[in-house]
Amino acid sequence: MSDLSNIFAAAWSKSGATGAIATDEPAGGRVLLLAGSPAYPLARTVPMPEVAGYETGAIGFRIFDLTAQGMEALKPETVSLVRQDAQTGRLSFGLGRIVVEGRCAIDAKPDPVIPVDFAGSLLDLSDMPQAAGGDASAAADPEKEQWLNQAREQRTELAKSTNGSTLLATYYEHNEAFNDLFSQSPGFVSQWQNGGVTKEMSRDTSAALQQRSTINAKTYSNNLNYNYNSFSQQATVATALAVMATAYDEGTPEYQKYANASTATAGFSTMVTQVTGNAQSTTVPMTSVEIHNTVAKAPNPTLPTILFEDVKKAYNIDPQSGGGSFTSDVSGFELDEATRARIQSVAAAVRKDLAENAAIVGRPLFESGCRAELDGIAFSLTWRRERGRVRIVEAQVTLPAFALDIDDESWIGEAGERARERLGSLQFLHSALEGWIEQGVRAHVLPRTAAILSDIIVNA
């Protein structure tokens, strides 16, 4: 190792031993990664044990109290710290063995009909194996597997920049609200599918990523182009989440969760326009590489501050009247008559589903522990010296292959067997777990890294 690399390794060890550089690490060295996930749907019409009080139900899987231990364990031999010039440089290093532990539960509800497998391959649950006949496991859809793999790749590329990482953190912040929407409102899912246009766009986006060609250049079977459909979809999601928020009393955690997700979704449209120039009625053709570069170089691509009252007014969300004709426009929201009509239809569909689901309450059937070990999480970052400190410009985090071990010995009966079968194919769960771990590692390790680099480079 170079002298700088040795100095960094020694400073890392010293900061962990003496607390000279604050890391906000809780007692016992455990860092909370996730307080609790939503219950991701697994299967329908599963025979329930007698204790459930009903014959068949839908089962879901959730993780809670997920923590990590060992993020202070640097592998000194992996450190490489080099200057590129007087103001910039690169740093790479790896961490030692990290243990991730948490609790998991199989929840059950009495026979709800949830048509989207949001936890796995986005297949219609009517195509999923059910208790009354059918194969024990659904055959994977190669096309959807490819889309999921590409989504993971794009997430990794986006996370390489500080701006992209910030946007991903915003997505994860509201992921539970998005999952609730897709799993609780089949009426919304039907609207979101948009007569097959959403699948057409997914297929074209996949091809554009493979060919490194323009993503947003096509017109679809509804005679509307990519940008029009994309911005319209964002309006429908923001509308649906706003309806879900107003189903609860203002100030409650549920109200705030869905209201925050709604304003974030509405704000994302505004941010996209500000950063890329694209809007529902304006197309600036871009490839995936151009999108990533634009996001990385944007001066401050944060979501604009949008009041939930403005979202409700713009999308005509009135829980007392149930909606009605639009009476006024709200600054910052671009809504033509077709979009207005569509979001009114979405709002009505979500209200209907919420009313039908009001009496359905899930309860845990089984609870158990879960654990994963990761050895060799790798960091590769660039840094810049500015205004008396070191700022991390870009950071890539690479997780090693790992498996989540679940203590499922207590999962008995057909419900337990069905849960085991489905968990084996939950691609989304592993991807979500990777995201939770990566975000937790970034939040814990990067501030400490920047502080050590500032101490070494500025004071050298």
Description:
Strand 4 (74-83) and strand 5 form a beta hairpin. It is built from 13 helices and 10 strands. It has 460 residues and is of the alpha+beta class. The relative contact order is 0.17. It has 2 domains: 1-153 and 372-460; 160-359, no CATH class. Residues 17-28, 112-139 and 319-328 have low confidence and may be disordered.
Estimate the strand proportion: 15-25%
Mean pLDDT: 81
As a whole number of angstroms, the C-alpha radius of gyration is: 24 Å
Number of separate domains: 2
Helix content: 40-55%
Characterize the largest beta sheet: strand count, sense, and whether it forms a barrel.
6 strands, antiparallel
Write the layout of secondary structure elements.
Elements: H1 3-18, E1 30-36, E2 40-47, E3 56-69, E4 74-83, E5 88-95, E6 97-109, H2 142-159, H3 162-173, H4 175-184, H5 186-193, H6 197-211, H7 226-245, H8 253-276, H9 288-297, H10 308-314, H11 337-357, E7 363-375, E8 378-386, E9 389-398, E10 405-406, H12 413-423, H13 427-458
Antiparallel strand pairs: 1-3, 2-3, 3-6, 4-5, 5-8, 6-7, 7-10, 8-9
Helix pairs in contact: 1-13, 2-3, 2-6, 5-11, 7-8, 7-11
Question: Quick summary of this structure?
Answer:
The protein folds into two domains: 1-153 and 372-460; 160-359, no CATH class. 44% of the residues lie in helices and 20% in strands.
Q: Which keywords apply here?
A:
460 residues, alpha+beta, 2 domains, six-stranded antiparallel sheet, four-stranded antiparallel sheet, 44% helix
